[in-house]
Amino acid sequence: MTNTPKARKPTNPRGKATQAHRHNISVAVAESWKDPEVARKRGTHNEVDVTSPDGITTRFGSTKKAFRALGFDDGPGGNRHIAFRTAMKAAHVTKPGSAAAWVHDGQTFLFRVVDK
User: What percent of the chain has pLDDT over 70?
Assistant: First the structure.
């Protein structure tokens, strides 16, 4: 087995992606929407129910909105909620109604995906 270098995207002298490369990506994305399964998944929007340690459940329009409202640390890039949402949605697909736990200051909050 040989190690082949990864293909690099074409760049201009300033290291930015070329217009032709961006166009090719746009065409590929537009083409992917023609797949009914891809379109269905991209068109799915979910809310989240969060049950606090005191048993109160609140509905939020997104995981990110829940993190912000509850004052959870979203990491240096502000995207820690993305990995959590990905895991939570994967669990929801496998077992609808299942909860994912987020521990904040020693307290456990339960998140559940809710289909809109």
Answer: 80
